[in-house]
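Thread: quick sanity check before group meeting

JM: Hey all, I'm pulling together slides for Thursday and realized we never actually wrote out the predicted structure for the chain we discussed last week. Dropping the sequence here so it's in one place. If anyone has concerns about the input, flag it before I start.
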Amino acid sequence: MPVFEYTALDSKGKTTSGIIDAEGAQAARQKLRTSGIFPVSIKETLEATPKKATKTFALTRQLGRVKPVEVSMMTRQLATLIGAGFPLVSALDALVPQTKSHRFKKILAQIKNLIVEGNSFAQALSKYPGAFSPLYVNMVRAGETSGTLEIVLERLADITEKQQALMNRIQTALAYPIFMMVIGTVVLLVLLIYIVPSITSIFADMDQVLPTPTRILIFLSDFFKSYWWSILIVLIASGVFFSRAKKTTKGRYWIDKTMLLLPGMGILSKKLAVARFARTLGSLLENGVSMLVAMDIVKNIAGNILIADSVETAAIEVGKGQGLGAALSESGIFPQLSIQMIQVGEQSGQLESMLTKIADVYEKEVETSILRLTSYLEPVMILVMGSIVGFIVLSICLPIFEMNQLIR
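JM (edit): ok, ran it. Output follows.
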């Protein structure tokens, strides 16, 4: 059934817009009038999923992509409606008007139409990989097969909400230090480019040799004033280089390997990737997905190519009959604690719950470590900024003191 976008006037004369499905444009107009809305314009929405897209289209899709929080909210609401006895199509039909995102609203309407045409819910979701991950699609497929779709949707909502909450807490913890660093950098650049030259110009006519700190300050000021554009070019070029490197296999491997080797940050990245791996694998196994299929899915969401390769290698060994813990330990990437907990879960027959505990442990450790790191960063940044400002003041004051001594 076609999906139409409309602009209309309500009973109070206010302009409203939305999406409606009908057999044709005339039927859509009639359907709107029946609901007390008077259409001004109406056009059919066509699904645009070209395999080859220009950069402009890619940028447009990036700016208009569906946010994870929107998917999480929709999943929770859909699970509630299905649990209350609503058929899937009716539940989706009820969710479309409540969705705020115009793009997501169109996607849900088209998914509903695909289901009406005879596709399964998982098949319909797989048509929109930009909104629904392979994990999401496979868990829904498992729920449809086992007849426990509402339970699967509840677990999916839990997974996405926990991951989103963790990322929000990390971003909140890092917001203040990043803000302070940006403001401090801007203030220093303003001092070096505009303030310092006007003050140090009075030393140009001095016949004596300036103190070393003053000469260093004048050199830095002249450099930033004359070559600020070169610094900007280097920053932009570095960003473009890393962006392109991430799109190549060798570049992505080098970046991910470097990330794991960084002091402090490498351990946090590894723990976060292991937590994502454990929670996702545990949820898939709980919903009836086989081990090999589940590992094939989770390798793509680890967020690190080295960990993904170790999971892929471990899946091969598991297929030969080896235990999951022993297979993962061969790579040497997974922390020993996670290996031991997985082996305990395998021996006790409670692997799924043990994987969930692993995710909880590492997510908590990551959050605690970041909070501790940010508490250290704040005084360190204040100390560094104070030292730089003190150097600038000292460099300006030293020649003045020498001039006073000469006058005396």
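AS: nice. Residues 65-160 form a domain with the Receptor-associated Protein fold (CATH 1.20.81.30). The chain has three domains: 3-46, 65-160, 181-408.
JM: adding both to the slides.
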